[in-house]
Design brief:
Elements (H helix, E strand, L loop, with lengths): L2 E2 L4 E5 L5 E5 L22 E3 L13 E18 L8 E3 L5 E3 L7 E8 L5 E12 L5 E6 L5 E6 L15 E9 L18 E4 L16 E2 L11 E9 L6 E21 L30 E5 L10 E5 L7 E6 L5 E3 L2 E3 L5 E2 L11 E3 L11 E9 L9 E3 L2 E5 L2
Parallel strand pairs: 3-4, 11-14, 12-13
Antiparallel strand pairs: 1-2, 2-3, 5-16, 6-7, 8-15, 9-12, 9-16, 10-11, 10-15, 16-26, 17-18, 18-23, 19-22, 19-24, 20-21, 24-25, 24-26
């Protein structure tokens, strides 16, 4: 049974019985999307829809995926008591370069991202501490085995040095592509404080040649990969020093599946909206919010899973409204919008919040396998100059399994 929170998010179960949280913000739908599986909530995931504004053809089939942010949390682990040092050579300038052998010992912790990842925002390492920070190198490994460099031996200048002797002091360290502080580029012996640091491909004197030992210099926002296990690795190039992490978080961007498809829009692809109040592509007719309201579905459409939910964005703030369903599709001008289906089931009131958003689940109780149902959201909009006093989103159609 799904839970409705009455706020700008809802909780509903996946097939494993875990509840996932969906938070809402304005979004748009494109004419073609990848069709991907839903997130599992077996790990703590927070997802926020983003606006997707793409051109939509005159004949529109809207199904597939919405862009979403995720955060997944991994377990803590010990960093090896002593690394084996790896192999080093010296180039013609006297700088250390890294040979084809990595330290044999490294810390490893994994997280599961059940969606295709198209970019990474940050990697946060919690409870991170280690004596002699210049020993350490950290990487992120995607499910296909591609390894990406996060940071490299702070202050390591040449093959006769050891990197900065300062410590990673206990705390949380967040690594971002840019906008943070730089790790020490010299062997100054100063401790490194918890905070936000830039991803780095150089230790100060020993730049990492991308591809060395299979580790690539990929900016975080360029990192992508399939669904599956993502791994944080921390290598210890020195010996005699140790450390640990209490956990870590991978923050990035992925996709949330949409079930079904949109139809009957107020964007000029069907009947002209009353008073010429045409919405943008994929929207209903224009409302007093300054845009047309948008309806989209999420979940697998399998009755036994009860994971299907509908989301509304772009409506006027704090207005009452209802979801309804019908077995037919029409496109009739009614009120200030377009009625897309004759209702044979109305659901209890779901008011729009201060952002003009709302959501509802528990539709499967009123559907049968193989049945195609059409959904729409009706809402009050009494300040609209067109005078109808109410409006609609576009329609959403789903064939239940």
């Amino acid at each position: 049974m799904a839970k409705e929170t009455g706020e700008t998010h809802c909780l509903f179960p996946d097939s494993g019985g875990y509840f996932r949280r969906i938070e809402l913000s304005a979004f748009r739908r494109a004419s073609t999307f990848l069709v991907l599986p839903l997130y599992s909530a077996s790990r703590s995931l927070s997802m926020r829809f983003h606006r997707v504004a793409l051109l939509i053809a005159t004949s529109v089939t809207l199904s597939g995926a919405l862009q979403a942010q995720f955060s997944v949390f991994g377990a803590g682990t010990q960093i090896p008591v002593s690394g084996d040092g790896g192999d080093l050579v010296v180039d013609n300038d006297g700088l250390a370069v890294y040979d084809t052998s990595m330290p044999g010992l490294y810390a490893s912790s994994t997280v599961t991202v059940p969606e295709v990842v198209f970019s990474v925002d940050s990697v946060r390492i919690d409870g991170f501490e280690h004596s002699w920070a210049g020993d350490l190198q950290a990487t992120l490994v995607d499910p296909s085995g591609v390894e990406h460099l996060l940071f490299l031996r702070p202050g390591y200048l040449n093959s006769s040095g050891f990197g900065t002797s300062g410590n990673f002091l206990p705390g949380s360290y967040t690594f971002v592509e840019s906008g943070g502080s730089d790790l020490p580029a010299s062997s100054n012996g100063l401790d490194i404080l918890p905070g936000t640091y830039n991803q780095t491909f150089s230790s100060g004197g020993a730049p990492w040649a991308s591809g060395t030992n299979g580790i690539s210099n990929t900016p975080l926002t360029w990192i992508s990969g399939p669904a599956g296990l993502w791994e944080l690795r921390i290598y210890d190039w020195g010996n005699g020093d140790s450390g640990l992490i209490s956990g870590w978080t991978l923050n990035g961007n992925s996709y949330v599946e949409t079930s079904g498809s949109g139809f009957c829009f107020g964007d000029g692809t069907g009947p002209a909206c009353p008073c010429g109040a045409t919405g943008a592509p994929g929207e209903g007719c224009m409302t007093t919010s300054g845009s047309g309201a948008v309806l989209a579905g999420s979940g697998d459409g399998v009755i036994g899973n009860d994971s299907f939910a509908l989301f509304v964005t772009g409506g006027p703030a704090n207005k009452p409204g209802i979801f309804f369903q019908g077995g037919n599709q029409i496109a009739n001008l009614v009120g200030d919008g377009i009625l897309c289906s004759i209702s044979d089931k109305r659901y209890p009131v779901n008011a729009l919040d201060a952002n003009g958003e709302t959501t509802r689940s528990n539709f499967s109780a009123f559907a049968a396998p193989g049945q195609t149902l059409n959904y729409q959201y009706w809402f009050r909009d009494t300040e609209n100059s067109c005078g109808g006093g109410f409006n609609f989103t576009g329609g959403w159609t789903l064939t239940w399994q």
